[in-house]
Amino acid sequence: MFRAVHLDQVPGLLYLHSMPGRCESIESFLREYGTRRMTGTICLNDDQEIARKSPTYATALEAGAYRGERDVFPIANLGVPDDRAAFARLAHDTAAGLRAGERILIHCAMGIGRTGTLGTCIAIALGMSEKEARARILASGGYPETPAQDELIRWFVEEHAMTTALTIPRPVEGDHAPGMAGYIAAAPVLNDALKQLTMQRDAVRQRLSGVTAAKAAYRYAEGKWSVREVVGHLADAERIFGYRLLRIGRGDETPLPGFDENTYVPAGAFEQRDFGDVLEEWVAVRNATLALVRGLPAAAWTRSGTSNGRRITAAALAYVTYGHIEHHMRLFTERYKV
Length: 338
What we know:
With 338 residues, the chain is α/β, with parallel strands linked by helices. The protein folds into two domains: 3-163, Protein-Tyrosine Phosphatase, Chain A (Alpha-Beta Complex); 178-336, Up-down Bundle (Four Helix Bundle (Hemerythrin (Met), subunit A)). It has 14 helices and seven strands. It has helices at 26-35, 47-53, 55-63, 84-99, 113-125, 130-139, 147-163, 181-186, 193-208, 213-216, 227-249, 261-268, 275-295, 314-336; strands at residues 3-5, 13-17, 40-43, 69-72, 103-107, 304-307, 310-313.
């Protein structure tokens, strides 16, 4: 049975199917394949599985009776591919073909688990959210059957986000309070925001992971924060920037209050904690920032709200988030010698 997947504003057609000849005669399948003017097939079985489960399909292939392009990407029953990068390329290439108007059929044995997993990833590559992609494929009878297949889809969501550049234009005067200008100037143009925020996370983690307990307690002058307290401040501030981004990105026009970093830091009692624990808290906050940025629709980046009595845009908050870290990394270099 040809189970069509509903694709919005995509000229091509995507079908999920069981192994040809397994649930219907191979002659019936080939007739319908021709009637639907299919462009190609993605086969997720190896030759041995086809021979065992649909001998008539194997015979048709040997006889050259199968028309159209046929890509073979074997995955074990209930399994996942060994080469995830190749699987991701297959999903992206198939999405590109659908955008070009191709008519593509995917099959495994029953057209459920392996087929549903790939179909979900193709839908994500076409721009659907993970939730919507899963729902569309489920409506066509496909879904991940195992935890490993489910995890593969979650991995692909991350992979797709990292290979799809998110460009956030640099804010202009009036998009933020004057006091934020220094942070925004410290950030590069965010022409691949998710990748840049991820790379910044990794660079900060690597730079600070070797800080000793003695260095974590260092203050360059009396009354200044210690290295440990600065990192605690980074976590506090990014949480608040993220909250503002959430509210403004969702179109909430409620005025948002400011915060006093000089009362937050002592109240955080960071000096009572292990430095590595404080650093990993900031990493967790940055991961939450990445999840938020990844999920915001394009329209969200044009929205604005009021924070601390000043207008600020969602795009400006992304730059502030990045630039605030760069500001403190510069101070670590110049004043803390970290």
